[in-house]
Design a protein that fits this description.
single chain; 211 residues; alpha+beta; Glutaredoxin; 9 helices; 4 strands; 57% helix; 12% strand; globular
Length: 211
Amino acid sequence: MKNIIEKALLASFTYEEYKTLISKLIEEGKSTGHNQSDDLLHYSQLNETRLKRLDKTIVVEDSIALALNNIDTAFTWLVISEGWCGDAAQLLPIMNKMTEWSDRIDLRIVLRDDNKDLMDLFLTNGSQSIPKLIILDTETKEVLADWGPRPEPARKLIADYKALNGVVDEPIKIELQKWYLHDKGLTTQREIIELMSQYLVNSKKNQEILH
């Protein structure tokens, strides 16, 4: 696993590099990923607009900003994504805003289709669902936790609809976007910081035991 992660990190983008790549491909009439279609290009265009809007509007909750600012261990947040993915466009700006509150967290992004071996290590119920956040110890590259592809209420919204209707179609996709709009990124912030907090608490306990 470590070799796969190190290989992915070498091919990773910063958040700004990721956005620049998406914009460049759109200008060429393309999307990220190995498959190309008019629909994927259309989704990429919508997501580019969404990224720009969320970059301006997402606010990190005060208590979470404080917790992030107090982190004293170096972490890497490695996110598997694609430019056409609607959930990624909603969630990456939140992750980026969170990392701006800590100089101990480095956000890196890789494309799913270019990193299939990494994606296969972090499947969701057997599927290559994205975005997937992998929280790493920067020094050792150890995987400490992973999160995604959606915050729990959004996951449940989709799962309940699919169980009832058998498909994930346009009406529920619209409802999902409404949920994200109403939530303003707060649930995502809280779920991710809870993961971080659990690791830090457990790590501190282990150190106390060793000493």
